[in-house]
Each structure stands twice: as structure tokens, then as C-alpha cells.
Amino acid sequence: MVTIVSYIVWALVKLINLYMLLIVIYALLSWFPGAYDSAIGRFLAKIVEPYQSLFNFASFGMLSFAPVVALLVLYFIQMGIMYVGQMLVGF
Q1: pTM above 0.70, yes or no
Q2: Which of 1, 4, 50, 59 is 20 to 30 A from 42 via CA?
Q3: pLDDT, average across residues 36-59
Q4: Contact at 8 Å (CB) between 6 and 53?
């Protein structure tokens, strides 16, 4: 039982880390002209935009803090999963 819970927590934490990395890469694409029109840009847009659009309220003028807020929310979710996992496993 402990091994299954540990594996599930580990897998969720790794998936959240991967998604956070994708958000960072998508945000960095804004530095390069035409990068959003590339195959990688379109692929990342399909994955990242639905979640990141929840945080579009965090913009000031032309500067958007949506990726930062999205990363912070994912970080707190990740910490919560780790905390619950530690409580269940009993570390």
C-alpha cells in the first residue's frame, strides 16, 4: 500500500514538474519572432493555453504575468500533493 501511494505521489509530482517546464518554454517562445507559429509553438499552445488562460487577469498593459501566476498555483498544488503523500505514507 505504501509503495503504491509513494509511486502515485512521485508520478504526480513529476507530471506537474513537466507541465511547469512546458509553461516556461512556452513563455520563452515570446522572445523569438514567429516562434508561436512553429510546430513546437502550436503544440505547446494546445497544451499550455487552456490552463494559462485562467490567469489572464494578471496583466498590466502589454505585460502579462499569467505564466508566473500559473506556475505559482502549480507549485502550491505540488506541495499539497507532497504533503498529503507524506501524511498517508507516514514519513
Answers
A1: yes
A2: 59
A3: 91
A4: no
